[in-house]
Structures are given as C-alpha cells and as structure tokens.
Amino acid sequence: SLVVLFGATAGAYGAKLGSDERELILLVWQVVDLHSKKVGTLHKSLVKADNLDLSDQCREVSALTPEGLSKAEPLDRVLQQFSQLVSSDLKVLGRSSYTLCSDGQLLIRQVLHPETSKKNFPLSDCFYSFYDLRKEFHTCYPSSAAVKDQTIKTMAEYLGLGTDEAEEDFGVWQVKTMVAIIFSMLSEGCNHVFTEPESVKYKYETGPCLLWLLFFPLCSSKSETVDSETVIRARGLPWQSSDQDIARFFKGLNIAKGGVALCLNSQGRRNGEALVRFVNSEQRDLALERHKHHMGSRYIEVYKATGEEFLKIAGGTSNEVAQFLSKENQVIIRMRGLPFTATQEDVLGFLGPECPVTGGKEGLLFVKYPDGRPTGDAFVLFSCEEYAQNALKKHKEILGKRYIELFRSTAAEVQQVLNRYMSTPLIPTLPTPIIPVIPPPYTIATGSIRDCVRLRGLPYTAGIDDILEFMGDATGDIKPHGVHMVLNQQGRPSGDAFIQMKSADKAFMVAQKCHKKMMKDRYVEVFQCSGEEMNFVLMGGTLNRSGLSPPPCKLPCLSPPAYAAFQTAAVIPAEAALYQPQALLPTTRTPQASAAAPPTVTYYPAQAAQLYMNYTAYYPSPPVSPTTVGYIAAPPGAVAAAATATHTPLLPQPGALVRMQGLPYNTGMKEILSFFQGYQYAPDDYNGLIQLSDQARSVLQAPKEWVCL
C-alpha cells in the first residue's frame, strides 16, 4: 500500500517549500491499495505552528487564516493522529504495511525532518522511506518533462486528467490528483511497479569517508571520486559544534560516511566552518536551500565547495591514523592540555571505568611533533554515546597539575591536527627577506631621560598604521625607527608597544593627549617612560606599578656585564615589505650619504659575551622598529682590524647558528656551554675577533667546534 501525502508550510510554496524555515501548517493524506486499486478515507489536518504569521503566498494559495490555525493541534499530536488513522484505514483494506508517496522530496526532507529535529521529537520509521512520485512518473513516462520541472498539474495534464483545482479545497485536490496519476501508472498500458523507494539516513555515520583518502589525498585518479557537485561549505558554525550537530542541521539529507570535515585555524582550533559531502548532487542542491537556516540562535551560511577542498581537509597520509580510524561507528573525543609526561595509563586512569576506551590503549592516539615530542593533544575512541557523554563530564578536571579540555571530534579533525603538527618544522625559521633596507644610522634608546611612551592595551590586530593613526599629529615627533611592538614568547602581539619621541616634552604631550583614547573597540593607556625602562621590557623584563623587574639576561651572577648598544643594519621581513620606513617617518640626511658604506662584519665589543638582543628577537617586529635580528655592526675602527685578520671570522657563513628554544629562565652561559660540550672552537681560534677576559677564557676552555651563541 501507498500513503499519498501532501503538505504546506506557513511560508514558501512549490519549488521553494522549506527553504525559508517556516513551519508545517497542513497535512493531507489517503491510503491506496496497489493490488485492489482501492482507496481509504481522505484525511485533512491543520497544524498549529508556533508562529502563525502566514506569508502572502500562503494566504493566497491555501486560503488558510491564523484564526483557523490557532484552533488546530500541534505537529506532534497531528503525527500521532496520522499514524493511528493510517493503521485504521489499512485494517479496513486488509493491509498491514505501507510506504509514503509524496510530490517530490521537499515535504519530507526539507520540512518534516528539520522541523521535528528542532522541536526534539522523533519521527516514526515510515518517514525514513518514501516514493518520489515525480521520479516514478518520469520512469513510467520517459518522454515527459524532466523530474525537476514536474508538478502535480503538469503530470495530470500529460495524462489528460480533467480535474479542476478550483473545485476542491487546497490539499484535497492535490491528493486526489496524485491518486489518479498513480492509478494511471498502474493501468495495463504501463503496469508500473514501485520498487526502489527513496531513503533518509537514520543517523550520520562517522569514520573515514573512504579508506583511500587516508593514503592518497593528492592522487588525481582518486580525487576524481570526490565529486565537486556533492560538497558544500557551511560557515558561521558555533565553535563547539560537532559533526553530529552539523548532521542534525542537515537532518533529512543523506551525508556521505565521514562526510563532515570541521575546518581548523592555524592554531588548531575550529574556525566555525565545515565542509560537508553528500551522497549525490541532488542532496547537495537541497542542502544549498538551507542557506541562512538557524543552528540555535545563529544562522548558517551554506555555499558550494569543491572535492579538492574536501580532500585537503579530510585526507591524510598517516598509517597510524588509518589504523586508529579503521574501527567503525566510534565516537571520537579530543583531549587537549595533557601534561607532556602523560602516558596511556595516565589517560585511561583519568577517564576511569565509567567511560571505557575502545580497545584500551589501541583507542588512544597521541599527537606528536615530527621529532616525537608530545603536543598535549590526544584523541580517544568510545564505542557508544553513553561512554562519550561520561567522558565529556570530565571537561576541565585535573590530570597531574593541569586541567584537561575534552571536546567531540571527527575523523577529519584527527587528520587535520595530525597533518598540521607533523608538517611543523623542528626549528621554525625566519621568513626570507625580500627587500634589504639599510636605513640611516640610529641607536636604541638608553638612559633615564623620559623621552619614550608606552602604549598598553592595544588590540591584538593593531598594526603600525593603526598606531600612527592613533598618534595623530604627534606622528611627526617620533624618532626614525622609533616604534617598537612588544611580542610574546609565541611571536604574537602582546598588546604593548613603545615609541621613542624626539624629546621628553613631546613624550609628555603625547601621554596627556592620547591616554585612554580609543583604538578600534578598545581604549589604550599611554604612559611616559625612559629608554632604559623600554629596553628592560624589550629584553624580557616587566614594567608595572611595582617597578622594574629585570629580564633574565640581566640577573646577577648569570651573565657578564651589559654593554652599550651599537648601531645595527635593518632588514625588512617579507611580511612587512610593503611598509617602507622612509614613507612612514622622516629620515635624517647625512653628509656622507654618497660615500661608499664600509662592509659590515660580525663584531663583539670588548666587554664581549652578551648580545644586546631582546627575547622576542626571533619574531621580527614591524618594519619601523629597530631590528634586533642578526649581529651588531662593528664600529669603524674594528672593520680594518677584521679585514686584516688571516683567520676565518667567527660566524660568517650560513648554517653556523643554531637556535635554542625552551631554555630555563635562570640558564647562564656556563650551562649553555656545558650543554654543547664537545662542539666548540678552541679559544685561540677566535681570539683575534673577540677580546676575552681571563674569566671568560677560563669558561671557554677545551673543546673543538663552536656552533652556538
């Protein structure tokens, strides 16, 4: 038996049914016995929507009114009545089973499934399988119009059925005409058989969408399988949304297995976007109709995407990941913030017996850097939703001395996180300079004269142009190369900046004028300070209401005495190449500008042993700040001495430097030299270039090759 079903919403009608998220307000149905060609009673039921504001098209086509709908039953009660009345009609016809038959797919896929999902009540099994009358009609009559162009009226006209739409109530005429069309298809001339119903997936299937994606992400012959006509990009997702949440948003549409790929930003966190792959282009086209539908209080944008984009997110190359994801129908949880010393036993103990991990240790995947160091992330498999929910209850509980964050995850997220960390270089390198610039000579500020200002509370997105705009007319009073952005240990803006003014009076005026002035959506505090205070902060110290806290390199007994800074040559980093310092600030002309500049050689002052290099030097500051990357240019007197030297300069060629990260703050020169014991030049090999005191010479005894400073 078939149950012919027709419905309408409070909004769009026809080809746009369900595209505006409006609620169902009408259901009409009738049972048809395909063997005896008998029909049951025709039923029409109004549905009370939460929002009774009907669109003009709905009022015109259906002739329904808000007053009439206000007396109707809500959708869940109407669906209960539907099941009861269908069962009763089947008994009268001597039948027990049935399949729905609707005019197209919109009513079931775009209206009933999304609405019941949002209202949190289940649909009966009969709504997960149905016949699309338009497709069945085109199969029976191949010469008729294309499926997408079919309507109840055009099908009736093709068969010559003389029904008058104006004679019947809205919905009643549609169902009667659909029944007449079905009987025509069952006639002796056609003998159509309904054999292949449409199906709606009960739930989203997790796991890798295709196993070969794990091993051949860039293989062109394989990537052709991911049809670009089946992929969409969803944007504006809540950051905490999981693949199941996204599948629920597209409820009623069939997503391919493992077809939800959450996109991550450069920090490995979700960026509010996802790529979704559907089983065919028809489902993808229906998904595009959900553009700006809502997930909670947020509307979601839906756009077309390509198979190549999907592969970049969902593909991978790790055998370990393939093994981890090979288990079917598992719930994946991501753990973040694990102690670096955490073991598999520690994680299993943290989760406890109430949330057993699938396969024990085999259900854990630790994320590591290429050199094997842990990142603090791990993925865990659970066999059911109950265990996963128990695990999520442990969000921000303590393991060791750290709290652990737990989130739902996806197979695609596992791939992205592993790919991102495994592709991270062991030693991040500076970007290659593309425009070498030798600016006019300048010196880093020193002394106690308060000719500098400190900007605190800058937006993290603020750049040099924002600061110059913030300073206004005072920009002309900034010294050349006098803007210093303070970066944190990760090389990101800390919200602080120092600016060297031409005089203490200018600094005082700027502090008075700009203090608590707005930059973008934040107010910025401006304080007058000295060059010495500025240098302490740039070298890693702190400056607050309690006074100055010296940087680690200034602590007594750990480092040799400091020395006055020498002039350095600047190199504009690649990302700052568009900003020319000369274009931003006035430069000082010198009479010797036309003279050939002496060569710059590596030079260490007499006090030796300590470079004046701030702790953020490896992360280039913006282009109008003095560069602190590189060596100190030699004073003129040292150039001649170095030129006449017969030995090889200390570090003249590329590759002679190594970078050390993660040093304890109390590390001194002795500890570093001890760490590199056996890899040093003998002191005699570089005496001509560095003037060593007896104390320093005693420290640098013995060894064979010097590769670290």
UniProtKB/TrEMBL annotation:
Broad class of where this protein is predominantly found: nucleus
The keyword Repeat belongs to this UniProt entry's keyword annotation: yes
GO cellular component, one term: nucleus
Superkingdom as given in the UniProt entry: Eukaryota
Gene3D superfamilies registered for this protein in UniProt: 3.30.70.330, Ribonuclease H-like superfamily/Ribonuclease H (3.30.420.10)
Limits of the RRM domain: 331-411
GO BP annotations listed: mRNA processing; RNA splicing
PROSITE patterns documented for this protein: RRM (PS50102)
Keyword presence, Phosphoprotein: no
GO molecular function, one term: RNA binding
Cell compartments where the protein resides: Nucleus
Keywords, in A-Z order: mRNA processing, mRNA splicing, Nucleus, Repeat, RNA-binding
InterPro entries per UniProt: ESRP, Nucleotide-bd_a/b_plait_sf, RBD_domain_sf, RNaseH-like_sf, RNaseH_sf, RRM_dom
Family classification: Belongs to the ESRP family.
Protein name, as recorded: Epithelial splicing regulatory protein 2
Source organism per UniProt: Cephalopterus ornatus (Amazonian umbrellabird)
Highest classification ranks of the organism: Eukaryota, Metazoa, Chordata, Craniata, Vertebrata
GN (gene name): Esrp2
